[in-house]
Amino acid sequence: MKNIIITGANGFVGSHILESFTKSTTLHTSIIAACRTPSKLPKWYKGETCIGDLSSIEYIEKLTYKADIICHTAAWAEMNGTLENSKKYFLNPTITLIKTALKNGVKRFIFLSAITSRPILQNKIHSNRKLEKIWPHYDSIIKIENYLKESCNQGMEIIILHIGFFTGKNYSLGILPILLPRLKTHLVPWIKHGKTSLPLINGKDIGLAFRLAATVKLKESFYRIDIIGKEKPLLKDVLEYLHSTYNYPLPHFNVSFPFAYTFARLMQYIHKFIPGDPLLVPAIVLLLEESNVNNSKAGQILGYRPTVHWKDSIDIQLDEMNKKQTKAMKMNK
Protein backbone atom coordinates (compact mmCIF):
# COMPACT_ATOMS: atom_id res chain seq x y z
CA MET A 1 0.00 0.00 0.00
CA LYS A 2 1.54 3.29 -1.14
CA ASN A 3 0.66 6.66 0.35
CA ILE A 4 -0.07 9.15 -2.44
CA ILE A 5 -0.35 12.75 -1.27
CA ILE A 6 -2.11 15.28 -3.49
CA THR A 7 -1.23 18.88 -2.69
CA GLY A 8 -3.76 21.50 -3.69
CA ALA A 9 -6.41 18.78 -3.44
CA ASN A 10 -9.22 21.34 -3.24
CA GLY A 11 -8.25 22.95 -6.57
CA PHE A 12 -9.30 22.12 -10.12
CA VAL A 13 -6.55 19.60 -10.85
CA GLY A 14 -6.37 18.19 -7.34
CA SER A 15 -10.09 17.51 -7.15
CA HIS A 16 -10.03 15.62 -10.45
CA ILE A 17 -7.07 13.52 -9.28
CA LEU A 18 -9.02 12.63 -6.14
CA GLU A 19 -11.99 11.66 -8.28
CA SER A 20 -9.89 9.54 -10.63
CA PHE A 21 -8.34 7.58 -7.75
CA THR A 22 -11.68 7.24 -5.96
CA LYS A 23 -13.36 5.75 -9.03
CA SER A 24 -10.54 3.26 -9.59
CA THR A 25 -11.15 0.14 -7.50
CA THR A 26 -8.15 -1.91 -8.62
CA LEU A 27 -5.31 0.18 -7.16
CA HIS A 28 -3.66 -0.68 -3.84
CA THR A 29 -3.03 2.90 -2.81
CA SER A 30 -3.87 5.19 0.09
CA ILE A 31 -4.83 8.71 -1.00
CA ILE A 32 -4.23 11.71 1.25
CA ALA A 33 -5.76 15.08 0.30
CA ALA A 34 -3.47 17.94 1.33
CA CYS A 35 -4.75 21.52 1.34
CA ARG A 36 -5.21 24.64 3.46
CA THR A 37 -9.02 24.75 3.51
CA PRO A 38 -10.78 21.41 4.06
CA SER A 39 -14.22 22.97 3.53
CA LYS A 40 -13.30 23.45 -0.15
CA LEU A 41 -12.60 19.76 -0.74
CA PRO A 42 -15.24 17.92 -2.81
CA LYS A 43 -18.18 17.10 -0.56
CA TRP A 44 -18.11 13.47 -1.69
CA TYR A 45 -14.49 12.97 -0.56
CA LYS A 46 -14.39 11.04 2.72
CA GLY A 47 -10.75 9.96 2.69
CA GLU A 48 -7.74 10.99 4.73
CA THR A 49 -6.68 14.64 4.79
CA CYS A 50 -3.58 16.53 5.83
CA ILE A 51 -4.46 20.16 6.46
CA GLY A 52 -1.88 22.94 6.55
CA ASP A 53 0.04 25.60 4.66
CA LEU A 54 3.01 24.85 2.41
CA SER A 55 4.72 27.97 3.72
CA SER A 56 5.21 26.03 7.00
CA ILE A 57 8.36 23.89 7.14
CA GLU A 58 6.75 21.78 9.90
CA TYR A 59 3.81 21.02 7.60
CA ILE A 60 6.12 20.10 4.71
CA GLU A 61 8.05 17.75 7.03
CA LYS A 62 4.77 16.09 8.03
CA LEU A 63 3.67 15.68 4.39
CA THR A 64 6.92 14.24 3.13
CA TYR A 65 7.29 11.91 6.11
CA LYS A 66 3.92 10.35 5.22
CA ALA A 67 4.31 10.29 1.44
CA ASP A 68 5.62 7.62 -0.89
CA ILE A 69 4.44 9.62 -3.91
CA ILE A 70 3.56 13.33 -4.15
CA CYS A 71 1.31 14.83 -6.82
CA HIS A 72 2.12 18.51 -6.46
CA THR A 73 -0.73 20.58 -7.88
CA ALA A 74 -0.82 23.45 -5.37
CA ALA A 75 0.07 26.76 -7.05
CA TRP A 76 -0.22 30.54 -6.88
CA ALA A 77 -1.25 31.24 -10.46
CA GLU A 78 -1.63 35.00 -10.87
CA MET A 79 -1.76 36.14 -14.50
CA ASN A 80 -0.93 39.76 -13.67
CA GLY A 81 0.90 39.24 -10.41
CA THR A 82 4.27 40.16 -8.97
CA LEU A 83 7.56 38.32 -8.85
CA GLU A 84 7.61 38.78 -5.07
CA ASN A 85 4.25 37.02 -4.62
CA SER A 86 5.24 34.20 -6.94
CA LYS A 87 8.47 33.58 -5.05
CA LYS A 88 6.87 33.81 -1.62
CA TYR A 89 3.74 31.74 -2.23
CA PHE A 90 4.83 29.30 -4.95
CA LEU A 91 8.52 29.06 -5.87
CA ASN A 92 10.09 28.99 -2.41
CA PRO A 93 7.55 26.59 -0.82
CA THR A 94 7.82 24.23 -3.81
CA ILE A 95 11.62 24.15 -3.71
CA THR A 96 11.44 23.47 0.04
CA LEU A 97 8.92 20.68 -0.61
CA ILE A 98 11.23 19.05 -3.19
CA LYS A 99 14.30 19.30 -0.91
CA THR A 100 12.41 17.82 2.02
CA ALA A 101 10.91 15.07 -0.15
CA LEU A 102 14.42 14.06 -1.21
CA LYS A 103 15.63 14.11 2.39
CA ASN A 104 12.70 12.06 3.72
CA GLY A 105 12.81 9.37 1.05
CA VAL A 106 9.79 10.17 -1.11
CA LYS A 107 9.92 7.74 -4.03
CA ARG A 108 8.20 9.76 -6.78
CA PHE A 109 7.38 13.44 -7.31
CA ILE A 110 4.87 14.49 -9.99
CA PHE A 111 4.79 18.19 -10.80
CA LEU A 112 1.92 20.05 -12.46
CA SER A 113 3.31 22.22 -15.24
CA ALA A 114 1.73 23.32 -18.52
CA ILE A 115 2.36 23.09 -22.25
CA THR A 116 3.51 26.73 -22.24
CA SER A 117 6.84 25.37 -21.00
CA ARG A 118 7.57 23.93 -24.44
CA PRO A 119 8.04 27.16 -26.45
CA ILE A 120 9.86 28.74 -23.48
CA LEU A 121 12.34 25.88 -23.07
CA GLN A 122 12.87 25.80 -26.85
CA ASN A 123 13.38 29.59 -26.96
CA LYS A 124 10.54 30.02 -29.47
CA ILE A 125 8.45 32.79 -27.94
CA HIS A 126 7.95 36.09 -29.77
CA SER A 127 9.36 38.35 -27.07
CA ASN A 128 12.87 39.28 -25.99
CA ARG A 129 11.83 40.36 -22.49
CA LYS A 130 12.83 38.30 -19.47
CA LEU A 131 10.25 35.69 -18.55
CA GLU A 132 9.87 37.19 -15.07
CA LYS A 133 8.63 40.38 -16.77
CA ILE A 134 6.25 38.56 -19.12
CA TRP A 135 4.71 36.31 -16.46
CA PRO A 136 6.27 35.95 -12.99
CA HIS A 137 4.29 32.78 -12.25
CA TYR A 138 5.73 31.04 -15.28
CA ASP A 139 9.23 32.19 -14.45
CA SER A 140 8.75 30.28 -11.19
CA ILE A 141 7.49 27.20 -13.04
CA ILE A 142 10.59 27.07 -15.25
CA LYS A 143 12.86 27.50 -12.21
CA ILE A 144 11.05 24.59 -10.51
CA GLU A 145 11.34 22.42 -13.63
CA ASN A 146 15.07 23.14 -13.82
CA TYR A 147 15.51 22.34 -10.12
CA LEU A 148 13.67 19.04 -10.56
CA LYS A 149 15.89 18.17 -13.52
CA GLU A 150 18.99 18.82 -11.38
CA SER A 151 17.55 16.59 -8.62
CA CYS A 152 16.68 13.57 -10.75
CA ASN A 153 19.67 11.43 -9.79
CA GLN A 154 19.17 11.61 -6.03
CA GLY A 155 16.93 8.57 -5.59
CA MET A 156 13.53 10.09 -6.37
CA GLU A 157 11.64 9.52 -9.63
CA ILE A 158 10.44 12.78 -11.14
CA ILE A 159 7.69 13.37 -13.69
CA ILE A 160 6.83 16.83 -14.99
CA LEU A 161 3.44 16.83 -16.68
CA HIS A 162 2.97 19.59 -19.26
CA ILE A 163 -0.81 19.84 -19.16
CA GLY A 164 -3.02 21.51 -21.78
CA PHE A 165 -5.51 24.29 -21.01
CA PHE A 166 -7.92 23.27 -18.26
CA THR A 167 -11.60 22.93 -19.10
CA GLY A 168 -14.55 21.18 -17.51
CA LYS A 169 -16.33 21.13 -14.16
CA ASN A 170 -14.98 22.66 -10.94
CA TYR A 171 -13.13 25.21 -13.07
CA SER A 172 -10.92 27.95 -11.64
CA LEU A 173 -8.63 30.51 -13.26
CA GLY A 174 -8.03 29.37 -16.82
CA ILE A 175 -8.20 30.24 -20.49
CA LEU A 176 -12.00 30.36 -20.82
CA PRO A 177 -12.84 32.46 -17.71
CA ILE A 178 -10.22 35.00 -18.79
CA LEU A 179 -10.93 34.99 -22.53
CA LEU A 180 -14.73 34.95 -22.73
CA PRO A 181 -15.53 38.26 -20.96
CA ARG A 182 -12.89 39.95 -23.11
CA LEU A 183 -14.40 38.61 -26.34
CA LYS A 184 -17.63 40.42 -25.41
CA THR A 185 -15.82 43.76 -25.59
CA HIS A 186 -15.19 43.28 -29.36
CA LEU A 187 -11.63 44.55 -28.73
CA VAL A 188 -9.79 41.22 -28.62
CA PRO A 189 -7.84 40.62 -31.87
CA TRP A 190 -6.84 37.46 -33.63
CA ILE A 191 -3.16 36.75 -33.06
CA LYS A 192 -1.55 35.18 -36.12
CA HIS A 193 -5.08 34.74 -37.54
CA GLY A 194 -5.88 32.21 -34.77
CA LYS A 195 -3.73 29.55 -36.45
CA THR A 196 -1.81 28.45 -33.35
CA SER A 197 -3.06 25.36 -31.54
CA LEU A 198 -5.11 25.63 -28.34
CA PRO A 199 -4.78 22.17 -26.75
CA LEU A 200 -7.70 21.99 -24.33
CA ILE A 201 -8.08 19.16 -21.83
CA ASN A 202 -10.92 18.11 -19.57
CA GLY A 203 -10.34 17.69 -15.84
CA LYS A 204 -11.31 14.01 -16.10
CA ASP A 205 -8.38 13.37 -18.47
CA ILE A 206 -6.01 15.36 -16.24
CA GLY A 207 -7.02 13.19 -13.28
CA LEU A 208 -6.39 10.09 -15.38
CA ALA A 209 -2.92 11.33 -16.40
CA PHE A 210 -1.88 11.95 -12.79
CA ARG A 211 -3.26 8.59 -11.63
CA LEU A 212 -1.25 6.82 -14.32
CA ALA A 213 1.87 8.88 -13.56
CA ALA A 214 1.59 7.91 -9.90
CA THR A 215 1.16 4.18 -10.49
CA VAL A 216 2.98 3.00 -13.63
CA LYS A 217 6.44 1.46 -13.46
CA LEU A 218 9.12 3.75 -14.86
CA LYS A 219 12.31 2.86 -16.72
CA GLU A 220 14.03 6.20 -16.09
CA SER A 221 14.25 8.61 -13.17
CA PHE A 222 13.16 11.78 -15.01
CA TYR A 223 10.45 12.52 -17.57
CA ARG A 224 8.83 15.57 -19.12
CA ILE A 225 5.53 14.44 -20.63
CA ASP A 226 2.92 16.42 -22.59
CA ILE A 227 -0.71 15.77 -21.65
CA ILE A 228 -3.52 17.16 -23.81
CA GLY A 229 -7.08 16.20 -24.70
CA LYS A 230 -8.52 13.80 -27.25
CA GLU A 231 -8.30 16.31 -30.11
CA LYS A 232 -6.08 19.37 -30.63
CA PRO A 233 -8.02 22.34 -32.04
CA LEU A 234 -6.62 25.62 -33.30
CA LEU A 235 -7.51 28.83 -31.48
CA LYS A 236 -9.60 29.64 -34.57
CA ASP A 237 -11.58 26.41 -34.15
CA VAL A 238 -12.33 27.14 -30.50
CA LEU A 239 -13.45 30.73 -31.07
CA GLU A 240 -15.62 29.74 -34.04
CA TYR A 241 -17.27 27.04 -31.90
CA LEU A 242 -17.92 29.57 -29.13
CA HIS A 243 -19.36 31.94 -31.73
CA SER A 244 -21.65 29.44 -33.45
CA THR A 245 -22.81 27.66 -30.28
CA TYR A 246 -22.82 30.40 -27.64
CA ASN A 247 -22.88 33.60 -29.74
CA TYR A 248 -19.57 35.00 -28.48
CA PRO A 249 -18.19 37.65 -30.89
CA LEU A 250 -15.32 36.71 -33.16
CA PRO A 251 -12.29 39.02 -33.28
CA HIS A 252 -12.59 41.73 -35.93
CA PHE A 253 -8.90 42.27 -36.74
CA ASN A 254 -5.54 40.51 -36.62
CA VAL A 255 -2.15 41.35 -35.06
CA SER A 256 1.23 39.67 -34.87
CA PHE A 257 2.67 38.16 -31.71
CA PRO A 258 5.30 40.94 -31.29
CA PHE A 259 2.56 43.59 -31.58
CA ALA A 260 0.34 41.68 -29.13
CA TYR A 261 3.15 41.54 -26.54
CA THR A 262 3.81 45.28 -26.94
CA PHE A 263 0.12 46.17 -26.68
CA ALA A 264 -0.32 43.89 -23.65
CA ARG A 265 2.63 45.53 -21.93
CA LEU A 266 1.06 48.96 -22.55
CA MET A 267 -2.29 47.80 -21.13
CA GLN A 268 -0.51 46.37 -18.11
CA TYR A 269 1.28 49.67 -17.48
CA ILE A 270 -1.87 51.79 -17.86
CA HIS A 271 -3.76 49.63 -15.39
CA LYS A 272 -1.24 50.37 -12.68
CA PHE A 273 -3.18 53.63 -12.38
CA ILE A 274 -6.69 52.39 -13.31
CA PRO A 275 -8.81 50.01 -11.17
CA GLY A 276 -9.64 46.59 -12.56
CA ASP A 277 -7.82 44.12 -14.76
CA PRO A 278 -6.30 45.03 -18.15
CA LEU A 279 -7.94 43.89 -21.37
CA LEU A 280 -4.74 42.06 -22.25
CA VAL A 281 -1.56 41.13 -20.36
CA PRO A 282 1.62 39.45 -21.65
CA ALA A 283 0.69 36.22 -19.85
CA ILE A 284 -2.35 35.78 -22.12
CA VAL A 285 -0.22 36.28 -25.22
CA LEU A 286 2.27 33.74 -23.92
CA LEU A 287 -0.51 31.17 -23.51
CA LEU A 288 -1.34 31.49 -27.21
CA GLU A 289 2.20 30.74 -28.44
CA GLU A 290 2.47 27.55 -30.50
CA SER A 291 3.49 24.63 -28.28
CA ASN A 292 3.64 21.80 -30.87
CA VAL A 293 2.58 19.16 -28.33
CA ASN A 294 0.92 15.77 -28.69
CA ASN A 295 0.07 12.71 -26.58
CA SER A 296 2.45 10.21 -28.18
CA LYS A 297 4.97 10.14 -25.31
CA ALA A 298 2.17 10.03 -22.73
CA GLY A 299 0.68 7.04 -24.52
CA GLN A 300 3.99 5.18 -24.70
CA ILE A 301 5.17 5.80 -21.12
CA LEU A 302 1.94 6.13 -19.15
CA GLY A 303 -0.60 4.33 -21.32
CA TYR A 304 -2.58 7.58 -21.37
CA ARG A 305 -5.65 7.64 -23.64
CA PRO A 306 -7.87 10.73 -23.19
CA THR A 307 -11.61 10.31 -23.63
CA VAL A 308 -13.28 13.75 -23.56
CA HIS A 309 -13.61 15.82 -26.75
CA TRP A 310 -12.76 19.52 -26.38
CA LYS A 311 -16.24 20.64 -27.49
CA ASP A 312 -17.88 18.48 -24.84
CA SER A 313 -15.48 19.85 -22.24
CA ILE A 314 -16.29 23.44 -23.21
CA ASP A 315 -20.01 22.64 -22.95
CA ILE A 316 -19.54 21.27 -19.43
CA GLN A 317 -17.61 24.34 -18.32
CA LEU A 318 -19.90 26.89 -19.98
CA ASP A 319 -22.90 25.31 -18.29
CA GLU A 320 -21.18 25.73 -14.91
CA MET A 321 -19.96 29.25 -15.71
CA ASN A 322 -23.47 30.39 -16.69
CA LYS A 323 -24.75 29.22 -13.30
CA LYS A 324 -22.10 30.54 -10.95
CA GLN A 325 -19.93 33.22 -12.61
CA THR A 326 -21.84 36.50 -12.56
CA LYS A 327 -18.84 38.74 -13.30
CA ALA A 328 -15.42 38.50 -14.93
CA MET A 329 -12.91 36.41 -13.01
CA LYS A 330 -10.00 38.33 -11.51
CA MET A 331 -6.53 37.60 -12.86
CA ASN A 332 -4.97 37.65 -9.40
CA LYS A 333 -5.80 36.03 -6.09
What does this structure look like?
The protein is of the alpha/beta class. It has one domain (2-324): NAD(P)-binding Rossmann-like Domain (Rossmann fold). It has 13 helices and eleven strands. Strands 3-2-1-4-5-6-10 form a seven-stranded parallel sheet, sandwiched between helices. Helix 1 (12-23) crosses helix 8 (203-215) and helix 2 packs across helix 3. The longest helix has 21 residues, at 83-103. The protein is globular, with a radius of gyration of 19 Å. 42% of the residues are buried.
Task: Lay out the secondary structure.
Blueprint: E1 2-7, H1 12-23, E2 29-35, E3 48-51, H2 57-66, E4 69-72, H3 83-103, E5 108-114, H4 117-121, H5 131-134, H6 136-150, E6 157-163, E7 165-167, H7 175-183, E8 190-191, E9 200-202, H8 203-215, E10 222-227, H9 235-246, E11 254-255, H10 257-270, H11 282-287, H12 296-302, H13 310-324
Parallel strand pairs: 1-2, 1-4, 2-3, 4-5, 5-6, 6-10, 7-9, 8-11
Helix pairs in contact: 1-8, 2-3, 3-6
